[in-house]
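Note to self: keep these together.
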Amino acid sequence: MAQAAQRRSERVLMDVPVVIRGESAERRTFREETFTVTISAHGALVMLEASVSLGQKLLVVNSKNHEEREGRVAFKGPAHAGLAQVGVEFTHPAPEFWQLDAPPRSWNG
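Structure:
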């Protein structure tokens, strides 16, 4: 619980279709259509088949509005059924990226 209190912005459970673009751990360019598990003003937790490394730069594209945000891999969980949970932190906070009608108050600073 103490860890949640230290978060910069609240996480919201939401399945948002996204495209993740970047370079795999094997140095191959990839483009993967996937979805979010959670979102926040500072990034998202996504499911990825591509092999990525902590600190690696990625581009997140919101499939609904085609907006793009640069981010980096901040968390990498174990793979299950070929997909790993990957936490992507935006280079700059972008609460408007998710286009929520009523974003959490913590997203506004």
